[in-house]
């Protein structure tokens, strides 16, 4: 995979990981409820779930492109619509949302379980991956290229949420984020809308 194409992949994976939603709220809750270790455990378990979805998506997309090009296009447009919906939701979130989680007592095992379940139990995640990976998957893609896509999605997701957990371990960070939540949500929403437009425009070449 060319480096420039990988950079595009990494950028859209980062936007997906950083978008506000249940995954971010989960990591925040476990970090605030149990400290750094539960937050990191939730982040790593979530990344494993994301990696599994990415693996299934990469292998399934190649066959879908070959056998059902029209169906593949419909699913891709549905994924783009979902990305746009996420973007609009983020723009409308204002100061509310995932940056104000309810505190709760938690442990590392509970955090790992919840992290995996949130990833695997979120049907919208597969739509996101179809919209995302459709830009990079081809029927004749090599095994190494597929592995790069899966690892990139998993490492970026895990890295982002580990960073969130570690950062929030410092008590002065969360108030700073809360004070700027509206700007974070606006920036994320705009990026997601641009990504939806990129998906509708066609594959990245």
TrEMBL record:
Listed GO MF terms: amino acid transmembrane transporter activity
One Pfam family of this chain: LysE
GO (cellular component) term, any one: plasma membrane
Keywords on record: Cell membrane, Membrane, Transmembrane, Transmembrane helix
Compartments where located: Cell membrane
Parts of the chain that traverse the membrane: 35-56, 63-85, 116-136, 143-163, 183-201
Topological type in the membrane: Multi-pass membrane protein
Chief place of localization: membrane
PANTHER family the record matches: AMINO ACID EFFLUX PERMEASE RHTB FAMILY, ARGININE EXPORTER PROTEIN ARGO
Protein name per its UniProtKB record: Lysine exporter protein LysE/YggA
Source organism of this protein record: Halomonas beimenensis
Lineage: Bacteria, Pseudomonadati, Pseudomonadota, Gammaproteobacteria, Oceanospirillales
């Amino acid at each position: 995979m060319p480096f420039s194409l990988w950079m595009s992949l990494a950028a859209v994976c980062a936007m997906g990981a950083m978008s506000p939603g249940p995954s971010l709220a989960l990591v925040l809750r476990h970090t605030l409820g149990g400290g750094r270790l539960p937050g990191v455990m939730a982040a790593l378990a979530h990344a494993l779930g994301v990696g599994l979805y990415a693996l299934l998506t990469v292998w399934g997309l190649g066959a879908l492109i070959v056998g059902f090009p029209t169906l593949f296009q419909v699913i891709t447009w549905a994924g783009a619509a979902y990305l746009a919906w996420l973007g609009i939701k983020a723009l409308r979130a204002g100061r509310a949302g995932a940056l104000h989680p309810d505190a709760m007592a938690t442990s590392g095992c509970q955090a790992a379980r919840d992290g995996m379940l949130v990833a695997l139990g979120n049907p919208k995640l597969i739509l996101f991956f179809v919209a995302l990976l459709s830009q990079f998957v081809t029927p004749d893609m090599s095994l190494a290229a597929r592995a790069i896509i899966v690892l990139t999605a998993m490492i970026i997701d895990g890295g982002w949420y580990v960073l969130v957990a570690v950062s929030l371990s410092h008590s002065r960070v969360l108030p700073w984020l809360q004070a700027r939540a509206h700007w974070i949500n606006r920036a994320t929403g705009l990026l997601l809308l641009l990504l939806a437009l990129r998906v509708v425009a066609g594959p990245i070449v």
